[in-house]
């Protein structure tokens, strides 16, 4: 927070793009302020993501920086539009603020996203978890260390509410790769495992859901260190944001080389995984073994 302004992930992502364009043009914040007939303070707030950006301001800055490519300008305008809507949006997540905790910002972005590519080496992705799996995680051996987010019922309800995004009129497109270890180390015992495996197989029937399994036989890679989600609001690539979770904290990578590296890593992991048909057969094979 800064006064009446709030820094948002999308705002910082957009501001970072404008800084990059301004720097490439060899211009200063003073030049930008003059073009907008505003103060340097306003430009600073825009570039740091503290305030929502108006379309006329973005167009004026693009003109100043010599940026005329329609796809580049359009991408910036679309990101600004989504950020403005996200800042004023009120949704189901407000009812579960205590249960979501630090995930609140991520969930609002997930709701606005067009596509998410997700690598998960430790748990079934939240968008694909059954209530029984969520409850088992919530009450597992180490869960007490993180039990500061609402009641068990609220926690499970919040997780289930997120999943509606996969069934909206304009549904989220989810491309996920799951490490084999996730499918062999279920919390809650065999009954929870059977239900979760059945649910994963069923979710692959949705046209907007793609699930691949990364088998032990494919070897190791640096992605085994942590999970990450690549969030796209337009076509994947230009405006991506990466969200990663490590114990007790969350990490945002707002574009640049970091996001590009995660995009490359995800593609490498996906290429070495079982294909969609093989992955479903793998899920069913595991189900029969239980």
Which helices and strands, and how do they pair?
Blueprint: H1 9-24, H2 29-36, H3 40-47, H4 55-64, H5 70-88, H6 97-100, H7 104-112, E1 115-120, H8 131-138, H9 152-162, E2 173-179, H10 189-203, E3 209-214, E4 227-232, E5 241-246, E6 249-253, H11 256-271, H12 276-289
Parallel strand pairs: 1-2, 2-3
Antiparallel strand pairs: 1-4, 4-5, 5-6
How does this structure look, described?
The protein is α/β, with parallel strands linked by helices and 290 residues long. It folds into two domains: 9-88, lambda repressor-like DNA-binding domains (434 Repressor (Amino-terminal Domain), Orthogonal Bundle), CATH 1.10.260; 92-289, Endonuclease Chain A (Endonuclease, Chain A, 2-Layer Sandwich), CATH 3.30.870.10. Helices cover 48% and strands 12% of the residues. It has helices spanning 9-24, 29-36, 40-47, 55-64, 70-88, 97-100, 104-112, 131-138, 152-162, 189-203, 256-271, 276-289; strands spanning 115-120, 173-179, 209-214, 227-232, 241-246, 249-253. It has a six-stranded mixed β-sheet, sandwiched between helices. Helix 10 links the parallel strand 2 (173-179) and strand 3 (209-214). Helix 2 (29-36) crosses helix 4 (55-64). It is elongated and about 70 Å long. The termini are far apart. Residues 1-5 have low confidence and may be disordered.
Under the CATH scheme, the architecture of the largest domain is: 2-Layer Sandwich
- What is the fold named in CATH at topology level of the largest domain? Endonuclease, Chain A
How would the global form be characterised?
elongated
Give the tally of β-strands. Answer: 6
Helix count?
A: 12
Give the ordered list of helices and strands: HHHHHHHEHHEHEEEEHH
**Whole-number radius of gyration?**
21 Å
Q: What's the story with the biggest beta sheet?
A: 6 strands, mixed
Report strand %: 5-15%
**What do the pLDDT scores average to?**
88
In the sheet with the most strands, the strands line up as 3-2-1-4-5-6
Count of discrete structural domains: 2
The structural class is alpha/beta
Output the CATH homologous superfamily of the largest domain: Endonuclease Chain A
Q: Alpha-carbon distance between the termini?
A: 50 Å
What is the name of the CATH class of the largest domain?
A: Alpha Beta
Provide the helix percentage.
40-55%
- The residue ranges in which pLDDT falls below 50 over 5 or more consecutive positions are 1-5
């Amino acid at each position: 927070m800064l006064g009446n302004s709030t820094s948002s992930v999308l705002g910082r992502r957009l501001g970072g793009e404008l800084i990059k364009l301004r720097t490439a043009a060899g211009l200063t914040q003073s030049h930008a302020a003059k073009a907008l007939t505003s103060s340097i303070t306003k430009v600073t707030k825009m570039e740091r993501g503290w305030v929502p950006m108006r379309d006329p301001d973005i167009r004026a800055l693009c003109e100043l920086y010599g940026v005329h490519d329609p796809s580049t300008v359009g991408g910036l305008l679309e990101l600004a539009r989504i950020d403005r809507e996200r800042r004023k949006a009120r949704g189901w997540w407000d009812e579960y603020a205590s249960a979501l905790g630090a995930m609140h910002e991520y969930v609002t972005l997930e709701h606005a996203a067009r596509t998410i590519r997700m690598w998960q080496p430790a748990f079934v992705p939240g968008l694909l978890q059954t209530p029984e799996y969520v409850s088992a995680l919530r009450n597992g051996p180490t869960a007490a260390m993180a039990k500061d987010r609402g009641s068990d019922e609220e926690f499970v309800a919040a997780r289930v509410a997120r999943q509606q995004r996969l069934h909206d009129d304009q549904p989220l497109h989810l491309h996920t790769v799951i490490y084999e270890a996730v499918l062999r180390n279920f919390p809650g015992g065999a009954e929870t495992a059977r239900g979760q495996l059945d649910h994963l197989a069923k979710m692959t029937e949705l046209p907007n859901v793609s699930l691949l399994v990364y088998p032990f036989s494919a070897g190791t890679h640096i992605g085994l260190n942590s999970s990450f989600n690549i969030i796209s609001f337009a076509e994947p690539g230009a405006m991506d944001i990466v969200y990663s979770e490590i114990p007790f904290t969350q990490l945002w990578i707002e574009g640049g080389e970091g996001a590009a590296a995660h995009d490359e890593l995800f593609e490498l992991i996906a290429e070495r995984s079982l294909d969609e048909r093989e992955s479903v057969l793998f899920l069913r094979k595991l189900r029969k073994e239980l």
